[in-house]
Amino acid sequence: MKKNKTKAIFIIPNLMPGGAERVMSFLAKNLNSSDFETTLLVLGHEANTAYDIMGVNVIFLNKTRVLTAIPNLILHLLKEKPQIIMSSIDHLNVSMGMISPIFTRIVFVGRQASVSKASSDYQAKSTNKFFSILRKWALRKLNYIVCQSYDMYLDCKQEYQIPENKLKIIHNPITENFSVKHNEPIDKNRVTQFITVGRLAIIKGHLRILNVLSNIKYPFVYTIIGSGPEKDSIKKSVDTLNLTSKVKFVDFTNDVERYLRESDFYLQGSFAEGFPNALLESCAVGTPVIVFDAPGGTREIVEDGVNGFIAKNEKEYLQHLNNLEHFDPKTVSNSVYSKFDKSIILEDYKSFFLSITKSK
After folding, report:
1. Are residues 12 and 159 in the same domain?
2. What's the whole-model pTM score?
3. Over its length of 360 residues, how does the chain's per-residue pLDDT go in tens digits?
4. Closest CA to 275 of 179, 163, 153
5. Are 29 and 53 within 8 A, CB to CB?
6. Does residue 17 share a domain with residue 62?
7. Same domain for 149 and 246?
8. 24-52 in b/e burial notation, b at 16+ Cβ within 10 A?
9. Is the CB of residue 280 less than 8 Å from the CB of residue 342?
10. I need a surface site. Which of 70, 195, 235, 323 has the fewest CB within 10 A?
């Protein structure tokens, strides 16, 4: 007898470069096809696609804003009648919570992307109190919320009063099959290579990394990959700290893996994170990390002394940089693959999705 598959629709505003976009397209493409019939529903335009969606059933609504896409989205759900809808990105999750009462037979799952309480101190303050109230109400209307980290789980409980039975921790997967770099001991006569990958924003803490690096006496090159609103401020700080000859900017590249493999250490300065994919990928290729202790998934990735170091402040961060230790690349890589390999995370999603459809 033919097995009835669970119909799941993954909804995302667009497929431009980003962690949520990567994970959602990955799930739509790789979730077990014998159990699930998946669709990736993109509210935006196909021209903005940054990820491989070959073999995925993708529908583009070609809208520029979530709000204008809602009528078409509702019509699509009425037609397709999926068992599960999973959305990601805050404003889309709010929209899904708002329309969920229309579809009582569908399980609505939101994927949180940040620790709201910790992130709010480093983002533009919203004067719209109505939306803050609406967000809290709408998120509680979702049937379940997937949290990428334990800190995110606590944030949902405390900030939005989401009941524990509606929260599920599922980490981001290592979506690629990275090859581990060669095991080469630290050579003090060679220029040390540092790297950071990510959006150039205040919350990412580039400036405090630069402050620490300005106190380093040995030769190094620091590569910053990414773009964002703080680019000019970061470049100005590089000049002020006399680091111009030591800092290299790369706006965008499809070859991040090579940069990570060729680096000696990955540096993370974030004040808060969701679940830092670039940090995870650095460990995956065998490049150890030095990070600041911060809310989010960082502490679930970094094992102090195994794949890198966690610093409490700039003084401690500088101490680690001044006393660089050799890490075996295979050990660093195994530390994350043992927990976040895509097969493990896909199995977590499979079990979760099957359990919530049975209980509906």
Report:
1. yes
2. 0.92
3. 446 899 999 999 998 878 888 899 999 999 988 999 999 999 999 887 877 788 889 999 999 999 999 999 999 999 999 999 999 989 999 999 999 999 999 999 999 988 887 776 666 555 467 878 899 999 999 999 999 999 999 999 999 999 999 999 999 999 988 999 999 887 778 899 999 999 999 999 999 999 999 999 999 999 999 999 999 999 999 999 999 999 999 998 889 999 999 999 999 999 999 899 999 999 999 999 999 999 999 999 999 999 999 999 999 999 999 999 999 999 999 999 999 999 999 999 999 999 999 866
4. 153
5. yes
6. yes
7. no
8. bbbbbbbbeeeebbbbbbbbbeeeebebe
9. no
10. 323
DSSP 299-337: HHH--BTTTEEEESSHHHHHHHHHT-----HHHHHHHHH
Got the DSSP string for 196-253?
EES---GGG-HHHHHHHHTT--S-EEEEEE---TTHHHHHHHHHHTT-TTTEEEES--
Q: Which domain holds residue 154?
A: 6-173+341-358
> 159 to each of 95, 268, 290, how far by Cα in Å?
18, 26, 30
Residue environment code for 201-221, b if the CB has 16+ CB neighbours within 10 A, otherwise e: bbbbbbbbbbbbbeebeeebe
Q: Are 39 and 6 in contact (CB under 8 A)?
A: no
Which DSSP symbol is given to 100? Answer: G
Q: Let me know whether 108 and 252 are in one domain.
A: no
Contacts of 164 (CB under 8 A, 6+ apart): 157
Contact indicator for 111, 84 with CB cutoff of 8 Å: no
Residue 84 identity: I
When computed from its CA atoms, the radius of gyration of the chain, rounded to whole angstroms, is 21
CA pair distance 173, 256, nearest whole angstrom: 17
Instruction: Let me know whether 260 and 206 are in one domain.
Output: yes
CATH code at position 43: 3.40.50.2000
